Amino acid sequence: MIAPHVSDTDALYLIKVGEIHLKDGNRTEFDDRLKYDIKHRLAGIKTELSSREGRFYLRIDEKESTRAEYVLSHTPGVNGWARAHRVRKDIESIEEAAATVISPYLEAGPQSFKIEARRSDKGFPLDSYGVAREIGGRLLRRFPGLSVDVHTPALVVNIEIREKAYVFILGGSGVRGLPVGSGGRGLLLLSGGIDSPVAGFRMLSRGLALESLHFHSYPYTSREAWEKVRDLASALACYAGGMLLHTLSFTEVQLKIQKDAREEYATLYLRACMMMAADMVAKKLKLNSIVTGESLGQVASQTAENMRFTGSFTDMALLRPLVGTDKEDIMRQARTIGTYDLSIQPYDDCCVLFTPKHPVLKAAYEKSREEFLAMGFEKSVAETIDSMNTVRLPCAFTPLREP
Amino acid sequence: MRSMTSHYLDWAATAPPFADIQIAAADFASTTYGNPSSAHTAGRAAGEALEQARARFAGVIGAPSNSIVWTSGGTEADSIALLSVLRRQRPVSIVVSAIEHDAVYQQAKTLSELGVQLIVVRPSGDGTVSPGSVADAIRRDTALVSVMAVNNETGAIQPIAAIVEAVRAASAAAGADPFVHTDAVQSFGKVPFDAAGFRVDAASFSGHKFGGPRGTGALYLRRPLETLARGGGQERGIRPGTVNVPGAWAFAAAAERALHRRQQSYDEAAVLERQLFDGIRSISGATVLPECRNAGAPGYSPYITCVAFPGLGGETLARVLDDGGVFVSTGAACSGARKERRVLDAMGVPRELSFSSVRVSFGRDTTAEDVNAFLEKATDAYRRFKV
After folding, report:
1. Which fold has domain B32-260?
2. Is B306 a catalytic residue?
3. What is the pLDDT of residue B90?
4. Is the pLDDT of residue A250 over 80?
5. Is B350 part of the contact surface with chain A (CB cutoff 8 Å)?
6. Residue B353 in contact with partner chain A when CB distance is under 8 A
7. Where are the domains of chain B?
8. Cβ of residue B328 closer than 8 Å to a chain A Cβ
9. Alpha carbon of B282 to those of A57, A94, A237, B386: distances in Å?
10. Which contiguous run of DSSP H or E holds residue A79?
11. Going by C-beta distance under 8 Å and a sequence separation of 6 or more, which residues neighbour residue B89?
12. Within 10 A of B10 (CB to CB), how many other CB atoms are there?
C-alpha cells in the first residue's frame, strides 16, 4: 500500500521498474537496491517510496518535483515513470484528467487503449470495473481516434481512486536496465574521448557500480584536458549516484616508453601499461572488473590481436561493452546521455608527439609480451599508483541539456 | 597572480598598462563625462578633450588630425578598412599576405565568402612579403591591399614603403587604384613606422599593445573610404558609436610616451634579443624561427622572437614555463593536423619545428633576468620532456 500522504501538495510519481521483473529468487534484493538508489539520490529531501504489485510509488514535496523527475530519468533500473494527475473524486474531473494525459499521444495518430482502474476508497460509488467502463466510454466518445484493446493496448490509462483520484500513463523515460550496484563495482578507464563515457553508462545500466580511472600526462596533456575528464565523470555520476575519479600521472611511464620501446610499439605498450595499472588499482580497491571503451577496429590499437596483448596484463573480468558497436551508434548514445558535447572539446588526451606514424596493428603475442616484460614497466607503473589522486564527484542535480 | 617571481614575456599579446595613465584616465572619465556629440557645455568639454587627444596622436605618427579615427581596437580598425571593399562595384578583388593577423586574414576570408576575390600572397622563407609578389597580385579590379607592418609571430618587419611603391606602380599599369592598408599593431612604438612617409592609405593601431587601455584603437586614413557600418555619424561616420573619450585620451598619452621612449626601448630590446639568441644557440637542438634570423638583423623586430624546441610541443613547453612563472605564448597546438600554424606554414617551416615553437616577446620592463629565467627553465624543460 502507498504510505499515507503527508500533504495535499505532494507530487506523486509512479515508477515502472525494468528487468527486476525477471528476477525471481533475489527479487527483494534488487528492489531494495533500486529503492536505495532513488532514496540516496534524493537524500535530504522528505520522500516516501513504496512498492506494490511490481511498481514503485514516490511521494515528494511539490517543490522538489523537478529534482525527482531528473533522478527518475537518470537512475538505472527505472524503466519509466509518470507523474500522476491528482483530481477531485468525481467522474467529470477524472474524465478531464484522463483526456489531458491521453491527448498528446493522439497527435501521432489513432491509438488503442485500455483503462486500468483501482479503487481503494470503497466509498466511491463506482467499483474499479465501473470506473474503467465509464471513463473508457467517455474517452471513446470524445476522441474518435481511440479504440479499445484490452489485450495489447498501445496506451494504458491508469486511474486510482484513493483520498483523491490519480490519473496517469506510464511513459518510457527511464534509463532501464538494472539498479547500480546490483552487479558489484568495477573500474572504468575514462579517457576523455567519446567512447569511454558511453561504455561506462552501458555498464552502469547493467547494474555495475563504477569508479573511474584516468591517465594524465602533464605537461604533455593540459589541465583543461583533466577538467574535461572530471566533467565527464560528473556526467556519469548523475547515472551512477556519485563517482570516484582516480587519476594516475603517467608522464614518467610515457617517457620510459619513448626511451625504451620501438616507435611503432609506443601506443600498444602505453595501453599495456594502462591495463597493468588498472589491474593494480582494481585489486587494491577490491573492484570486480575493468571496463574499457574499446571498439573493434576503431583505431589501430583496437585490433583483436592488440586486445589480446593488452588484455593479458589483467586477469580480472575485462568488459568492453562497445566492442561490437558502430561509431555512429556510440556517438548517438553519447548525445543522449549528455557526454558528447563534453567529449568533443578540443583538449587532447595525448600529445601527437607520442603517437607513432605507423603503429603496430597485429602484435605478435609471445614476442611482444616477452619484449614488453623485459623492459620492466611494473615498477614505473606501481609508482604511479603510490601517488594516485582521487576526487569524489557527487550526483549533482545539474539537469543536462535536452538532446 | 602567483606568489613566486614571475617573468612576463608575452608583450606582443598585451603590454601591462602605464599605471599612472590608467589612473588619470579613470579620474578623467568621472569628471569629463559628457557625450562629445552633445551640444551643451559638458558635451563640448568632452569633445574638446577628444580633439586634443586626436591631435596628440596625429602628432605622434606625423599625420594631420583629421586623418585619425578612434576605434575600439586594432581588429575594428582593420575591419573598417577591409569591409569598405563591399561598397565597391563588383567584380572586385583584394590582396592580403598569408601572414596577416586573424583580424585581417579572417575578415578577408569572410569577404571572399561574400563574393570578393581574395588573393593571398605568400611570404618568403624569412617571413617577409616581397614587394614584387604583392605587385604581381594587382589586377584591374584590385580594391584593397593589406600587408602588416610587423608580424606578430616571427617579428619579421615587412618592407611597407617598398610594397606601397611597387603596388602603386603595378596599379598604374593595371589601371587600378587600390586602397593600401597596413596593420601596424605590432609596429607602433617599437620599430620605426612613419604612416605618412610610407604613403599607406590606412594603418591600424591598438592601445593595449603599447601601454594604453584595452578596447582602444585608431585607424589612420590618408584618404576617405566608404564604410559599411551606420549609426550616429560619429568619427565622420567612419566609426559610428559614442566615442570612448577617456580611452582616446589614455591611448594618446600612452602613444606619446611609447614614442618618446622608442629608441631607448629599442636599443634595450636589441640587447635582450642578442642575449636570447645566444642562449638559444647554446641549447642543443633549439632554434630561432626562421632559422636564417640572427640577432641584430634589421629585418626583425627585436621585441618578438619565435623559438622552436624540436621534439617538445610548444603548448607543453608553455605549460611547464607557466608552472615556473615564465609566461610565453604559443599558437601551436599539440593536437596534430586539426590546428594549423598558418604563418609558419606559409613560410614553409616544417611542422616538427612549427608545432614545437613558442613566441617570446619583450616590452619596456623586460630585463636580462627575465630572459635568463626563460632560458634556464626552457633548457630544463627541454632536457626533461623532449621526446
Report:
1. Aspartate Aminotransferase; domain 2 (3.40.640)
2. no
3. 83
4. yes
5. no
6. no
7. 7-15+262-385, 32-260
8. no
9. 75, 87, 51, 16
10. strand A78-83
11. none
12. 19
Strands B304-308 and B287-289: antiparallel
Is B335–A219 a contact, with Cβ atoms under 8 angstroms apart? no
Q: Which residues contact A125 (CB under 8 A, 6 or more apart)?
A: none
CB spacing of B387 vs A258 below 8 angstroms:
yes
**First and final C-alpha spacing in chain A:** 37
Cell numbers 595499472: residue: A277
**In which element (H, E) is residue A92 found?**
helix A91-106
Please give the pLDDT value at position B333.
43
| pLDDT tens, position by position, A166-225 | 899 887 678 889 999 999 999 999 999 999 999 999 999 999 999 999 999 999 988 999
CB contact under 8 A, A352 and B355: yes
Query: What pLDDT is recorded for position A29?
Result: 83
Using an 8 Å Cβ cutoff, are A253 and A381 in contact? yes
Q: Considering only CB atoms, which chain B residues are within 8 Å of A267?
A: none
Q: What is the pLDDT of residues A66-79, one digit of tens each?
A: 889 999 999 999 98
According to CATH, the topology of domain B7-15+262-385 is Aspartate Aminotransferase, domain 1 (3.90.1150)
Query: How deeply is A124 buried, as exposed, middle or buried, from its count of CB atoms within 10 A (0-12, 13-18, 19+)?
Result: middle
Mean pLDDT of A229-242: 94
User: Which residues of B, range 180-219, sit inside 8 Å of A by Cβ?
Assistant: none
All domains in chain A, ordered by first residue: 10-168 (3.30.2130.30), 185-393 (3.40.50.620)
Kindly report the nearest CA distance between residue A295 and chain B, in angstroms.
22
pLDDT at A262 over 50: yes
The pTM score is: 0.84
What lies within 8 Å, CB to CB, of A324 at 6+ separation is: A295, A296
The answer to whether the CB atoms of B315 and A352 lie below 8 A apart is no
